[in-house]
Predict the 3D structure of the following.
Amino acid sequence: MNEAGLVANMLWLVASEYPKNDGTNPEMSLSIWAQYFLDNYGSVAEAVVDIEANPFDAVTADVPDQPGRLAKVHLSLSDASGDSAILEWLDGELVIHHGPEYRTMTNDPPYDQQLAVKRYWQDVNPREALPGVI
């Protein structure tokens, strides 16, 4: 969390696929991705507007002590106003879910699949089945 109340969290996302360097966008290591947002923005809206106007490509590397296993994450941002965003690199493109309704993120799967699972279980009677049993 920074002094303006912007919060950044990163969780594992196996489906992450980062762009190939074609020389058109600057690159940023995932190791500083969350810190970049905390250092440069005071709100989610400000961060989303700027990242859409000034794109960069994420670069990953091996997980420490696990050669050959790339770090793969997605990032959530939230601020004191209640605004939120989930940022994911899927198929080499940055996907942004932005709005106060995007408040919770888990490790896997990608966020659109998390929303689909949530919608499915909203219509299931918990007295008949529990999540994970069908």
Remarks:
- The chain is about 20% helix and 30% strand.
- The two ends are 39 Å apart (CA to CA).
- Strands lie at 7-12, 27-29, 57-59, 62-63, 66-70, 73-78, 84-90, 93-98.
